[in-house]
Specification:
The protein is an alpha+beta fold. 30% of the residues lie in helices and 38% in strands. Strands 1, 2, 3, 4, 5, 6 and 7 form a seven-stranded mixed sheet that branches. Strand 5 and strand 6 (149-158) form a beta hairpin. The longest helix has 15 residues, at 32-46.
Length: 170
């Protein structure tokens, strides 16, 4: 199932349950708080410094009840597990990686809950051969507004299509 279709199905289901204020065709949002959250996430990922500091900076942008979905072979992770995972990743294959997020759409489910569909590109990821590569994925994230600021509550990564693995550009 294509990602765009999956997104529309989820939003249609939420609207049918009365959980969404908008239909599945909501256009890209210019909400400055959400833009700031994503810019801060990129900056935290891209900052120089010890792996644990980078991971802690990412965790600070997540809600305390954050969950990140694993792949089909890995279980979801809570915030503490995700922070430890990010620390390991920044110590190995993501040591020199940089992140660029591009928002496709933002769907407000409520005034303080939004569902974001975005492209995720990491450059300088260490490949299995030790050479830098670029990896492109699609992210689906739920963000919540708590204490006046937006936080990431849930995130899932998907290959660009169900038929192919994540694209690696050499």
């Amino acid at each position: 199932m294509a990602i765009a279709l999956r997104t529309k199905l989820v939003l249609t289901l939420l609207a049918g349950l009365g959980l969404s204020q908008v239909g599945p065709s909501q256009a890209k949002s210019d909400d400055p708080g959400i833009q700031k959250l994503l810019a801060d996430f990129e900056a935290a990922f891209n900052q120089p410094g010890p792996p644990s500091a980078r991971a802690k900076a990412l965790a600070a942008l997540c809600s305390p009840d954050f969950v990140v979905g694993g792949s089909r072979d890995e279980p979801p992770e809570d915030l503490a597990t995700a922070e430890a995972h990010w620390t390991r990743q920044f110590s190995t294959g993501l040591k020199a990686a940089t992140l660029k997020l591009t928002v496709r759409t933002v769907h407000f489910l409520k005034s303080d809950v939004a569902f974001i569909d975005l492209d995720h590109e990491m450059a300088n990821v260490e490949g299995d051969d030790g050479k830098p590569q670029t990896v492109r994925l699609q992210d689906l994230a739920t963000v919540v507004k708590k204490g006046g600021r937006w936080l990431i509550a849930d995130a899932r990564q998907f290959p660009l299509s169900e038929a192919e693995p994540p694209k690696v550009v050499k």
